[in-house]
Recover the amino acids of this structure.
């Protein structure tokens, strides 16, 4: 084997090592970015308008709920409300701050459920239009509100329908 063959083998091996390092390093960065906080539309199932995304991001990522977490809350039988939304829906983005504030003022725990990321929620909870708010009590639907309204209207709705 000539000297040039060793150089080619060494060069090829070096390229493979560097490529593997870059691949694993970028994969680790993606894992670190995704850990810790639930993000709107984490699976990227739809194009999200940056302004809509910003409205949700400013609302409260800590209020987002996973499908399995919602199932567990229903089994626990506590009283709580779920704001079903689509991250691609401008009305949903406009509603999010108002509905969260209204639920806090009335004292009803509120979580936010992404209908794009967890499509099974549409059928399971009979969601025909977003935004939709459902109050659950003892694992069952107590009442629901469909559509966009003002914070004052949401407060009145919660007070009239939540016992």
């Amino acid at each position: 084997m000539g000297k040039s063959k060793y150089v080619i083998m060494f060069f090829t091996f070096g390229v493979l090592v560097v490529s593997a390092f870059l691949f694993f390093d970028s994969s680790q960065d993606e894992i670190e970015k995704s850990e810790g906080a639930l993000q709107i539309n984490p699976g990227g199932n739809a194009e999200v308008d940056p302004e809509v995304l910003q409205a949700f991001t400013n609302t409260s990522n800590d209020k987002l709920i996973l499908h399995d977490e919602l199932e567990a809350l229903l089994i626990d039988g506590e009283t709580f409300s779920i704001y079903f939304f689509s991250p691609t829906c401008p009305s949903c983005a406009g509603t999010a701050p108002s509905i969260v504030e209204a639920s806090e003022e009335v004292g009803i725990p509120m979580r936010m459920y992404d209908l794009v990321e967890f499509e099974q929620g549409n059928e399971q909870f009979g969601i025909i239009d977003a935004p939709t708010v459902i109050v659950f009590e003892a694992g069952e639907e107590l009442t629901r509100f469909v559509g966009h309204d003002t914070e004052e209207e949401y407060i009145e709705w919660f007070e009239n329908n939540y016992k």
